[in-house]
Design brief:
The complex is a heterodimer of chains A (143) and B (647).
Chain A (H helix, E strand, L loop, with lengths): L2 H31 E5 L1 H5 L9 E7 L5 E2 L5 E7 L4 E7 L11 E8 L4 E8 L9 H12 L1
Parallel strand pairs in A: 1-2, 5-7
Antiparallel strand pairs in A: 2-4, 2-6, 3-4, 4-5, 6-7
Chain B lengths: L1 H29 L2 H4 L2 H24 L6 H6 L6 H6 L5 H21 L6 H25 L23 H30 L4 H32 L10 H23 L6 H24 L12 H25 L14 H31 L4 E3 L1 H24 L7 H26 L4 H23 L6 H25 L2 E7 L4 E4 L2 E12 L4 E11 L2 E6 L2 E5 L4 E5 L1 E4 L3 E10 L6 E9 L1 H17 L4 H21 L1
Helix pairs in contact in B: 1-3, 1-7, 3-6, 6-7, 6-8, 7-8, 7-12, 8-9, 8-11, 8-12, 9-10, 9-18, 10-11, 10-13, 11-12, 13-14, 14-16, 15-16, 16-17, 17-18
Classes of the chains: A alpha+beta (143), B alpha+beta (647).
Chain lengths: 143, 647
């Protein structure tokens, strides 16, 4: 093998090695961190990943918001006007969190009944409805 | 009258951009001097018309002309003058007009500062830039016209989004645009070179400066965006791996790879095709970023008004520019073949490794950002969480930090790898000792924090050591490189501390109550009401003490903007040398005046941004390289002499 060829071979094998390692790490990281989005209807049909976090999206049900006395714990229901899911969250809600507004909660199902949110997102726009939620509502209109 | 003038100026700009696209290129194809000579004047006139139409928009805002839809939607009678001016680029239409204005400014600057390029080269470069401007002027005119009028004229406007009534947000978009559009110069050079089928050191040397400036702007834009998100969104985070943030980070990553590869290809006949390809990728990612931000195709917590037509328009532009450039690349790249052979034991190899690491990082971020879209197509709704990006980035930054000092230690062309490694050994020992000390002081630290701190100290000690050992006077190129690398070190160290040693607590506080967080005593004094120009606020008062010493009184606000019916949290931050103390208000919990209060302590967070500022300072110092100036001057004299001979 000529020195040039040898050099090239080393370089190419290094690149292939790098790509292989990167792909392996990439796939692992990806598998663990992909997060599904579910609607209250799907959750009520038990169609949600167990023992891992997912995103629950819908509207905050009117009249469902309850604050527990002397703590930062709140309870509310997320609805897609077809099914409701009870959500528990401890912490500060976003500015635009209101009943009747779109919301996305990230968390997990503690049991069949209760979704424990670790993070609650509401968009910074009063007309906001999460795209996923408007999709859900639209498909239901058609049915 | 003014809206019509603005509109007319835009149409004029469209025609001028068309002329700039067609005439010089035609001149190049036919070898017609006169046509090629139109490139420079056309560029300047294009800038004037676009700038004038942007000024029109600002004037409309100052005059509160609510007959213009865009003004009515983003301003109001109560909006203070400073925000009326900045509202001009506060929403989509105006911000795209600003993009075009910045683009035209760059084109005009390229036309002026390109004396070292021959007429045939500059006419091709300006023609490509004109073609890009053409697409975006068309986008303003046909898909996001800020001069559209409404009837009947509303008595008052809807006011500017309160989140945008802030200094950080005023500066963030222009800086990003300067960066985005600046990368179009390297792109235009690549396409021009592919059209002509030739490229040389001197072309790359010339484009290197533009890349450095663009990259510096991009860095500043990202820093400001991060800073703004930190204090204005009220979540206390500095980076969320949100699609909109990734949109600005992707071109930065590719740009970083480009800067390092240009350092090689400007000096010798190597990595030609790679330089050209990276420039195409970097600018394509700028357009893709604009698409992600503007089309609303990706769910983002802070995505903007979604409009499918606009999305498709930008996608078409992306297809034309990137698709065209890449097609050209496939057919012509072999003509740009590099002739110099590469010695493995040289700085060039390490710079190649750098570009591979950064481009891998670019693609992992890109995949994570686009994956939800791909899934959406098969009817599944997913999102890729921040931990994915965090992990990928961590893994990729390890080889980057490990190899960086080796790269700056090795000499160009040919060196002894083992000797270089031996010379780095003292820094390795020093770093290990320092990391142990840091660990001892701040333990417990998890493995990621330790790796980040180790990486930061390793880059820091080696870079400073190499600077001190530098024989003779350091050149601007060397100082720039060292400063930027010290920036990398400062960033890595500070980021590891901020991420892993921060304290975040949401607590319920009644007036008069004191709570201890992270060694500080926080006393909540209650909330009162204040009224400002265009909002009312509930203002809390929190005293922060360490032992008996009063450090500061923080006054976070919960604002309410009546025009938009929008509440907003304004955090109060105490900025210290080693940490920030951050307090924001949640909501009133009971009738006795108790509030939900969020308290963060963020160590070294300012230093993280300061690291970024060092990086961009390095890029700017590099511009003053005496070697490059000498070579540029020589080239300019040659071009001048040639022109004199011809005429």
């Amino acid at each position: 093998m000529t020195p040039t060829r040898k050099r090239r071979l080393i370089l190419i094998s290094l690149v292939i090695f790098g790509v292989a390692v990167a792909t392996a790490i990439f796939l692992t990281a990806f598998k663990d961190n992909i997060m599904f989005f579910k609607s209250p209807t799907e959750v009520s049909q038990n169609d949600y990943p167990e023992n891992r976090s997912f995103r629950l999206g819908g509207m905050v049900k009117e009249g469902s918001l309850q604050r527990l006395e002397n703590s930062l714990k709140v309870l509310f229901a997320v609805t897609d006007y077809n099914a409701d899911v009870q959500v528990e969250y401890e912490g500060i809600l976003p500015d635009l969190f209101r009943e009747g507004q779109g919301v996305v909660a990230i968390g997990y199902m503690q049991n069949d009944q209760l979704f424990v949110a670790e993070e609650v997102l509401a968009k910074h726009d009063e007309n906001y409805m999460p795209p996923e939620v408007s999709d859900i509502l639209q498909t239901e209109d058609k049915q | 009258m003014l809206p019509e003038i603005g509109q007319f100026l835009l149409v004029l700009s469209l025609l001028l951009a068309t002329a700039l696209t067609v005439l010089p290129m035609l001149g190049y194809a036919r070898n017609n001097q006169t046509l090629m000579l139109t490139a420079r004047p056309l560029s300047h006139v294009l800038f004037l018309t676009v700038m004038a139409s942007f000024v029109m928009l600002v004037v409309l805002f100052i005059q509160q002309d609510f007959s213009v839809l865009y003004v009515a939607e983003n301003s109001s009678l109560e909006l203070p003058l400073r925000y009326r001016i900045t509202a001009a680029w506060g929403a989509h239409e105006g911000s795209i007009l600003m993009w075009v204005t910045v683009q035209a400014l760059w084109i005009s600057a390229v036309a002026k500062y390109s004396q070292s390029l021959s007429l045939s080269q500059i006419s091709r470069v300006l023609s490509v830039l004109g073609f890009i401007a053409l697409g975006f002027v068309a986008f303003v005119l046909f898909a996001s016209n800020p001069f559209e009028t409404i009837y009947p004229v509303p008595a008052d406007g809807r006011d500017l989004n309160p989140l945008l009534q802030d200094f950080g947000m005023i500066m963030h978009p222009p800086l990003l645009y300067f960066g985005y559009v600046g990368l179009s110069v390297a792109f235009a050079l690549s396409v021009a070179a592919l059209i002509g089928g030739e490229i040389n050191e001197q072309w790359i040397r010339w484009s290197r400066r533009w890349t450095n400036i663009a990259w510096a702007f991009l860095t500043m834009g990202i820093i400001l965006g991060s800073w703004w998100a930190y204090y204005e969104l009220g979540w206390g985070g500095w980076w969320f791996w949100d699609p909109v943030e990734n949109a600005s980070f992707l071109p930065w990553l590719a740009g970083t790879a480009l800067i390092h590869v240009q350092a090689v290809s400007e000096r010798k006949n190597a990595f030609r095709g790679w330089t050209v390809l990276l420039a195409i990728i970097a600018f394509s990612l700028c357009i893709l970023g604009t698409f992600l931000v503007r089309s609303g195709s990706i769910t983002s917590v802070h995505s903007f008004a979604a409009d499918p037509f606009r999305g498709i328009f930008i996608l078409v532009l992306l297809a034309i520019y990137s698709g065209g450039a890449l097609t050209l690349y496939t057919f012509r790249a072999n003509q740009l073949k590099s002739r110099d052979t590469l010695n493995l034991n040289s700085r060039e190899t390490l710079l190649l490794a750098n570009s591979l690491i950064f481009i891998t990082a670019t693609f992992t971020v890109l995949l994570g950002t686009l994956f939800p879209m791909i899934f959406e197509a098969v009817g599944k709704k997913i999102s890729v969480g921040a931990p994915y990006f965090g992990l990928m980035f961590f893994v990729l930054m390890i080889p980057m930090a490990v190899l960086l000092p080796l790269g700056s230690q090795l000499k160009w062309h040919r060196d002894d790898m083992m000797a270089a490694v031996k010379q780095l050994l003292p820094y390795f020992i020093l770093t290990t000792l320092l990391t142990l000390i840091v660990w001892f002081v701040f333990k417990p630290l998890n493995i990621r924090a330790i790796a980040g701190i180790y990486g930061g100290l390793w880059v820091l000690t080696a870079t400073i050591g190499q600077w001190l050992k530098q024989p003779g006077r350091a050149t601007a190129g060397f100082i720039g490189m060292s400063v930027a690398h010290i920036g990398v070190a400062v960033f890595l160290f500070a980021m590891s501390m901020t991420e892993h040693k921060d304290i975040e607590q949401d607590i319920l506080m009644s007036p008069g109550v004191t709570k201890q967080v992270g060694g500080y005593d926080f006393t909540f004094l209650g909330v009162d009401r204040v009224k400002q120009e265009n909002y009312q606020a509930q203002q809390g008062h929190v005293e922060v003490r360490r032992g008996d010493r009063l450090i500061t009184t923080l006054n976070p606000q919960k604002r309410f903007y009546p025009k938009q019916q929008m509440p907003m949290t304004e955090a109060a931050i105490y900025v210290g040398w080693t940490k920030d103390i951050y307090v924001s208000l949640g909501e009133a919990v009971n009738k006795e005046g108790a509030w939900a209060v969020r308290i963060y302590i963020k160590p070294l967070i300012r230093w993280m941004w300061f690291g970024g500022i060092l990086m961009l300072t390095g890029a700017i110092i590099g511009l003053f390289s005496a070697r490059i100036k000498r070579q540029e001057d020589k080239q300019r004299d040659q071009v001048m002499a040639q022109q004199l001979n011809l005429s």
